[in-house]
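Quick one: co-fold with adenosine-5'-triphosphate.
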Amino acid sequence: MQADQPAVEINSLTFKHNTLFTAPPEDYYEFPGLRDVNFSLPRGSVTLLIGGNGAGKSTLLYILAGKRMIQEGEVKAFGRDVFRSFADNVVYLGTEWAMRAGVRGDIVVSDFLDSVGGYRFKERRDRLLDILDINLDWHMHAISDGERRRVQLCMGLMGNWDILLLDEVTVDLDVLTRFSLLKFLKQEANERKATIIYATHIFEGHFIHFLEPSYSYPKLRN
Ligand SMILES: Nc1ncnc2c1ncn2[C@@H]1O[C@H](COP(=O)(O)OP(=O)(O)OP(=O)(O)O)[C@@H](O)[C@H]1O
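Sure, here it is.
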């Protein structure tokens, strides 16, 4: 990997949804999704992808993850076409991913994380357990939705990713956990030059971590 090579590069990307409706009126439709998208992101950058519902954020992240084939253009991760080469250092975490990773059986968190390779990434796993305030003795079927989402995030983030595509994954986290997680992501970008794209339709104060590392909250006037 060359040091000056962009982590993400998109040239003249055009995408249409090809949808077959099986309910009346049955037909095959092409819906415009994204048109002539161009951008490149350097290694170590953190990017907020902001847009209203239906703007195309998830579509763009799916494409970057190589999960949707495009009709025109180029999409590259570290100089390689995302549709031609599988990159295990590109990780997508979104609501669809969370549903698939949503184990609700009676399994203890430590066993659950080990079953997906947690023992190989013990150091990062332990750091995330701390940040996300996860107890290894929890039983997956007996925790809240927010706690389960924290375990899922630990699972998704503990590996060796270099590009992270996050689709609204912090919406059901409590304020303190979200704060710590966003800080962790910014550190990952600063310290090991990981590249992060975070899609959201809610721009809120916590994202200030992403924009300005030295930001401190203003003091209230007396
Ligand atoms: N399979 C599909 N067939 C046709 N249109 C689709 C399909 N999937 C998504 N779309 C349309 O593409 C547009 C973009 O959807 P997308 O899920 O990327 O939006 P989003 O910006 O992530 O929205 P949200 O913030 O609500 O998650 C929407 O208008 C949606 O209706």
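If it helps, Confidence is low (pLDDT under 50) at residues 214-222.
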